[in-house]
Amino acid sequence: MAAVKRNKPAANSPTPTLRHLWLAGLGLAVIARREALASGARTVDGIGALQRRAQGLVADARDNVRGGIESVRGQVEPTVVKFSAEVEARLAPVLDKLGLKGGKKQRRGARKPRKAAKPAQARRGARKPAPRRTRRA
Origin, by domain of life (predicted)? Predict the structure, then answer.
């Protein structure tokens, strides 16, 4: 049996009226509001994703800098120690001639050890203000 195509007459659409126009505008406003709220939520999500990405990039950069500093420190530190030992070795005879000890280093402006605190004296009663002199007229 062959499929028979039936032609239906097109439904007569009513002519647009002001009510149809009003309802279409109202529907458009509802859809626009819904999309505006959804786009706001999408924007907030996008900002959060950008923030996480930026924090990841900052953490990577910080780790790279720290790694570079560690490698430079590993190269510089032995040189500094060697230089310091060489300076001390050259200064030792000069310090001996001047009669200064070369063994212990003192910081400039080092504080002397504190003395033990004196015991607090017992306080007497509350002090009274000195009497005021009266003026004679």
Answer: Bacteria
